[in-house]
């Protein structure tokens, strides 16, 4: 049975989309192997012909699971959800499921892609103000949405895919020196979530490929 | 029952993400009302305080349905899928569902956001080569992925959310003068899909807010 083989995550410690998948695996209690793809070293290992075979978009993450190769973190997370037992990553109520997907996509389509490495490389010298602009613009929308949907977590009182997207995006915001305290709901949710082992243990500061000077 | 009220789509004739939702409604046979949000006129009607209440991201589409307001086209499409009968928009097989979501997200997170209006407005004079660069980069990845997954349509022989994303992205590519014939699988799928009434009738050239000189 191919489902008895451990999934293999091709990722990078600091990639927020890789971190999403690590959180999902941890919440579900799924063991997996990691293959680091260093996005900086050698001009970017995601650009090799070998990696392009795995993910033609030349991005991380990509997961080999059950005999197929999947890229795009939300597709991976929802595949895990639909094929693995354990803690639910999306609620059962259709309206709440839709809100989880909406918040996930505000981050995964509305914010992260515009401050992604390959976009910033194209922007060049102005990359920090560019990233700050789009993260702040996104958080200004996310804050009122989350005010409506949040309970203890992003949507109600159950951890979901929306939380899996939020925490790595806050990490990106902090990397780009965005003052997250302007967004009290986002800040509060992030703090609550960062107490949870699945979020802590999957953090960029403690992955197999985290450089020693960035470890904590 | 709020589900007996027609959904209301706030959209723009030429927005590829609005078109995705129009295709989904058409495939499901769902009647809906359209409220045009002109992204150009008056400096952009999506920027008004009134529209910001509907979608804080100040983007289209947003749909009012069953008493809730949803933005993000893939969240809307999957909500329709999970609450409405009729033609399936995602396959039942989990691996194929994952491939549909992967291809949808390559477009919805990997291509469209980077050539979105609000990004191009920030780019300024260089916007056409910028959009071409990221569309071509995305199609270079999409082509080999679709070669693996496609049958008659993007994933196998059933129309899915992946097709709903593909056709409007090809329309965007053509607007930016990208030569789609470089990508034979994409071109073939688009031609096949454009024969189908749900794709034709929802086309930007024939919406209530399409200007007369752009009608066909």
UniProtKB/TrEMBL annotation, chains A, B:
Q: Which InterPro entries match?
A: Glutathione-S-Trfase_C-like, Glutathione-S-Trfase_C_sf, Glutathione_S-Trfase, Glutathione_S-Trfase_N, GST_C, GST_Zeta, GST_Zeta_C, GST_Zeta_N
Q: Which residues form the GST C-terminal domain?
A: 93-212
UniProt key word Cytoplasm: yes
Q: What is its EC number?
A: 2.5.1.18, 5.2.1.2
* Parts of the chain that traverse the membrane: none
State the source organism's domain of life.
Eukaryota
Supply one GO CC term from the record: mitochondrion
Keywords attached to this entry: Cytoplasm, Isomerase, Phenylalanine catabolism, Transferase, Tyrosine catabolism
Q: Does the keyword Isomerase apply?
A: yes
Concerning SUPFAM superfamilies, the annotation shows: GST C-terminal domain-like, Thioredoxin-like
Catalytic activity from the UniProt record:
RX + glutathione = an S-substituted glutathione + a halide anion + H(+); 4-maleylacetoacetate = 4-fumarylacetoacetate
Tell me the pathway.
Amino-acid degradation; L-phenylalanine degradation; acetoacetate and fumarate from L-phenylalanine: step 5/6
Q: Which family does it belong to?
A: Belongs to the GST superfamily. Zeta family.
The protein depicted here goes by the name Maleylacetoacetate isomerase
Instruction: Look up and give the organism this protein is from.
Output: Conger conger
